[in-house]
């Protein structure tokens, strides 16, 4: 059997960190290297494989087409090697992730798929936190979070998980009373159910109906999407929610009002501190989440 030449692992590590963090400076800081030392390691890898992996302009480094192809080819094996080493390490019996999750996302999208993650990474265990102000606690009491927001703060690594439409959702009995054609007088007699942290969904929905100045009889505020859906199913009002929430709830008591295509101002995002991606629990969950397409 011919002898295989393995790439210099420190150089490969420098390359993977630079791609993952999107910055040579961030990668150098994470690895405890000077920028010039990081650059030398990457140059060694380029010399080894005979391809230019990055274009360099001042402080910026961008993947070349060959660099992108190399990363795509190597990433699964790099992760497999990390998992193999972790599985054989006597010092790694358990990895723990402190994750903030909104309850509705957890019940509808995350929990039905967590068994896949457990099979892939048996040593990874997750502490779930559904408390308030998840984004503000990332990097403090939370390693990472899945939040519903217009856009996370600039200091966080963020991955957008979806784009949504805003729907008005009601019980089937109430929907029959309201009818299929928007009637401002009839709607003004109704109670609307709005999430405390998503007020602009209602604004977007009213604008789509050209009812910007419309005021309902009452607005009841909730801090739980699950409870909003249940309140709507019980006929307590019209819920302003995402279409995905209605679809995944699969509740025969509920239906959509009107046939509207309203873009939501809010999306679900995965967020963590940029440096946290190099912590094994965060990296494992992040990579699985993105690949799983939750």
TrEMBL record:
The keyword Transcription regulation applies. GO terms for biological process: DNA-templated transcription. GO terms for molecular function: DNA-binding transcription factor activity; sequence-specific DNA binding. Keywords: DNA-binding, Transcription, Transcription regulation. Pfam families: HTH_1, LysR_substrate. Belongs to the LysR transcriptional regulatory family. This is LysR family transcriptional regulator. It comes from Alteriqipengyuania lutimaris.
């Amino acid at each position: 059997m011919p002898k295989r030449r393995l790439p210099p692992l420190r150089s490969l590590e420098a390359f993977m960190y630079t791609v993952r963090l999107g910055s040579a400076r961030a990668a150098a800081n994470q690895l405890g290297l000077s920028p010039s030392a990081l650059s030398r390691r990457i140059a060694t890898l380029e010399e080894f494989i005979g391809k230019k992996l990055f274009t360099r302009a001042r402080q910026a480094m961008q993947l070349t087409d060959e660099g992108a192809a190399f990363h795509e080819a190597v990433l699964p094996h790099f992760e497999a090697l990390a998992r193999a080493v972790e599985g054989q390490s006597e010092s790694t019996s358990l990895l723990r992730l402190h994750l903030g999750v909104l309850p509705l996302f957890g019940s509808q999208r995350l929990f039905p798929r967590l068994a896949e993650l457990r099979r892939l990474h048996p040593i990874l265990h997750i502490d779930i936190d559904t408390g308030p102000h998840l984004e503000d606690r990332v990097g403090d009491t939370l390693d990472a979070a899945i939040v519903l927001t217009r856009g996370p703060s600039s200091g966080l690594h963020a991955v957008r998980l979806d784009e949504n439409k805003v729907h008005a959702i009601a019980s089937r009995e109430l929907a029959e009373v309201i009818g299929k054609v928007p009637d401002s007088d009839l709607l003004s007699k109704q109670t609307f159910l709005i999430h405390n942290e998503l007020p602009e969904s209602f604004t977007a929905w009213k604008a789509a109906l050209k009812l910007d100045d419309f005021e309902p009889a009452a607005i009841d505020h909730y801090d739980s999407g699950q409870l909003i859906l249940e309140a709507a199913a019980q006929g307590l009002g019209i819920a302003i929610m995402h279409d995905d929430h209605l679809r995944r709830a699969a509740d025969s008591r509920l239906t959509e009002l009107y046939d509207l295509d309203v873009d939501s101002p809010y999306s679900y995002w995965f967020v963590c501190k940029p440096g946290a991606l190099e912590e094994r629990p965060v990296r494992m969950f992040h990579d699985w989440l993105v690949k799983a397409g939750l």
